[in-house]
Amino acid sequence: MLNKKMYAALNKHMNIELYSAYLYLSMSSHANSIGLKGAANWFMVQYQEEMVHFMKFYNYINSQGASIGLSAMSAPPGQYKSLLDMFEQTLKHEQFITRCINDLTDLALKEKDHASHIFLQWFVTEQIEEEENDRDLIGKLRLIGDNGHGLLMLDGEMAARVFVPPPATAA
Predict the structure, then answer these.
(1) CA nearest 45: which of 66, 31, 63?
(2) What sign does the CA torsion over 74, 17, 95, 90 have?
(3) Three-class SS of residue 67?
(4) Confidence at residue 166, expressed as pLDDT on a 0 to 100 scale
(5) For residue 17, with 0-12 CB atoms within 10 Å meaning exposed, 13-18 middle and 19 or more buried, which class applies?
(6) Mean pLDDT for the stretch of residues 1-21
(7) Is 159 helix (H, G, I), strand (E, B) or coil?
């Protein structure tokens, strides 16, 4: 069973994960609107991953006997200067998520909530991958610069990304 402090923090973060999905759905739409179908696909896969993250929190909170509290959220940005700008914003957002996960992990330890601490370890590992992927794409986009051919090649590479759901777990 979750104590009030841990419940409030997990529920708040669950809503942040839902906002993350909303953000990447917006980015997918923007990429599509500027003709970058591969980037649109990359962000759509990111949206799907964030929905999995949201549902992991949703299911965990429910499994601990608590009810879910959905909150209103702000609309995400809908326009970006470039694909590089989109990925710089993505990295910034994922770094924020990493800080949130780290804070949750610290809180679980402080509250001696070992079940939540174990649950959060998957997210700690996931954030390493999230930030690394963003930095890799930012590096490629900086190398490409204004080269349209390079951008088209990278867009084709991003079109190959597929959503792979994580294995089912108890929570």
Answers:
(1) 31
(2) negative
(3) coil
(4) 85
(5) buried
(6) 96
(7) helix
Q: Which tens digits make up the pLDDT trace of 58-88?
A: 999 999 999 999 999 999 999 999 999 999 9
> pLDDT digits over 89-136, tens only?
999 999 999 999 999 999 999 999 999 999 999 999 999 999 999 999
What value, to the nearest 5°, has the Cα angle with vertex 137 and ends 28 and 76? 35
Q: How far is CA 139 from CA 12, 47, 118, 143, 155, in A?
A: 32, 22, 33, 6, 14
Task: State yes or no: pLDDT of 169 exceeds 70.
Answer: no
User: Within 13 Å and on the Cβ side, how many CA atoms surround 28?
Assistant: 16
Helix axes 148-159, 114-144, angle to 10 degrees: 150
Kindly state the tokens that stand for 88.
């710089």
d(CA 62, CA 154): 41
Residues 6+ apart with CB under 8 A from 148: none
